[in-house]
Write a structure and sequence with these properties.
- This protein is an all-beta fold.
- The chain has two domains: 110 residues, Immunoglobulin-like; 245 residues, Pectate Lyase C-like (3 Solenoid), CATH 2.160.20.
- Helix content is 3%, strand content 42%.
- It has two helices and 46 strands.
- Strand 12, helix 1 and strand 13 form a beta-alpha-beta unit.
- The longest helix is centred in the middle third of the chain and has 7 residues.
- The termini are far apart.
Length: 449
């Protein structure tokens, strides 16, 4: 790969459409409009304005819609009305909007729908343009400023300098881990850190680093397209009230150490009041396979983790459990959906310690040695639907440890078992699938012999 500091090609963002509704109701005007902030965009964003009926601009759309900068100076955007007059595309100025700046999309009074009265008052929608910073392992001549030509060489440095709405591109290469602490964005101003398009980014612990990414007391971050491997304790550690952390399209493997430490090793761990985090489209594998203690998991949620979404991931070859929700008041109100949880030394999933009201939907379990799902103490109100419990040679498909876990619902699931008498373990012994159905479970479930 050519060093970033030697590359003179200007980064071009792909055009992304944003759609919001500016609705005219018949015989009404400004009440149907809602002024306010509409988001943080890339510099070449195309804004698509949609109406709920055709709109007449009297032959001059530029008199009615415009973009102005923070000094109220008009910006030279291009406006394109659709043939059906239902929508208007607002194309960015030549060269794009200025990074980090705020703009206003202005709708002047007099815009007239085919049916109804014209807009009587000016309406303004504000938006902000993302700032983009770059990191490269290749050091450049001169002072680093985070630009494409003079990127930072330290991820920690660029994270500390980032403002809400900043996108951080990591150029291809191998890096050490980094920490995100006390950095809070918002719903409309996420921080984004991701690989530069087409380049491979690795965080490599080289078997002595402890954690790849540590996130403390931070919110509204997107972490995408990064490979994380060879750390001793954890790939990504999310803690201390962190929320709205989106982890997407990551690969995490070989989190391990050769020791008999009783502390577990995790690809991703969330604890201490973390909430509204997502793990999606990730591949997590080979966790704790050197020491083989059964304490090491793909995803571990504990200590009041809540409202996590874990979706479309492939998690396998963990010495413990693929997804483990346990510990003091472990996790609640989480969605575990459409994952492949397979070939793990203990279970595909374990729920314990007051883990309540979680939804486990559409997952595929297979090749797990002990159980597909193991439910321990005081875990209540969890819903399991449309899953395939396919570990045919495991000890059990489903196992309950004791009677304190109540009001859990199973339906529309498939059970695949070589020994059909060992599909379900309830407390102190196995029960037949017919007995399981007689307990108001699996009215629409299926045992495949």
């Amino acid at each position: 790969m050519e060093a970033a500091c030697m590359t003179k090609v200007k980064l071009i963002f792909s055009t992304i459409f944003i759609v919001f509704i500016l609705a005219f109701a018949p015989h009404t005007s400004v009440k149907a409009y809602d002024s306010g902030y509409i988001g943080c965009f890339d510099s070449n964003k195309v804004i698509n304005v949609c109406f709920n009926m055709p709109v007449d601009f009297n032959g001059d759309i530029n008199n009615y819609i415009k973009v102005v900068d923070c000094n109220d100076k008009p910006v030279e955007v291009k406006l394109e009305q659709s043939a059906d007059k239902i929508s208007v595309r607002v194309l960015p100025p030549k060269g794009g909007y200025e990074q980090g700046e705020k703009y206003s999309l202005v709708f002047e009074k007099g815009i007239k729908p085919i049916i109804g009265e014209p807009l009587k008052n000016k309406t303004i929608k504000t938006f902000k343009i993302n700032k983009t910073l770059y990191v490269s392992e290749q050091k450049c001549a001169g002072v680093e400023d985070g630009s494409f030509e003079k990127p930072y060489t330290s991820i920690d440095k660029v994270v500390s300098n980032a403002e809400p709405g900043t996108t951080i591109y990591l150029r291809g290469g191998k890096y050490c881990g980094f920490t995100i602490a006390n950095k809070n964005g918002s719903e409309n101003d996420y921080y984004v850190i991701k690989n530069y398009p087409g380049e491979t980014v690795e965080l490599c612990g080289r078997n002595h680093g402890k954690v790849g990414i540590t996130i403390h007391n931070s919110s509204y971050w997107k972490i995408e397209g990064i490979d994380i491997h060879d750390y001793l304790d954890c790939g990504i550690y999310v803690a201390n009230g962190s929320n709205h952390i989106q982890m997407n399209n990551l690969k995490i493997w070989n989190i391990d150490e050769v020791s008999d430490s009783r502390y577990g090793k995790m690809a991703i761990e969330g604890e201490n009041n973390t909430s509204y985090c997502t793990v999606s489209n990730c591949i997590l594998h080979d966790i704790g396979q050197h020491r083989k203690l059964g304490l090491d998991h793909g995803i571990y949620l504990t200590k009041n983790a809540r409202s996590w979404t874990i979706e479309n991931n492939d998690i396998y070859n963990c010495a413990g459990v693929a997804i483990h929700i346990a510990g003091s008041h472990a996790g609640r109100d989480c969605i575990i959906k459409n994952n492949k949880l397979h070939d793990n030394d203990y279970h595909g999933m374990e729920i314990a310690s007051n883990s309540d009201n979680n939804q486990i939907i559409g997952n595929k379990f297979y090749g797990n040695k002990n159980c597909d799902v193991y439910i321990k103490e005081a875990s209540c109100g969890n819903v399991f639907k449309y899953n395939t419990f396919g570990s045919s040679n495991s000890t059990y498909n489903i196992a309950f440890e004791d009677e304190s876990s109540r009001n859990n619902v199973f339906d529309y699931n498939k059970y695949i078992k070589a020994d059909t008498n060992r599909a379900i373990r309830l407390f102190n012994g196995t029960i037949s699938f017919d007995k399981w159905k007689a307990l108001s479970q699996e009215a629409n479930g299926q045992l495949i012999r």
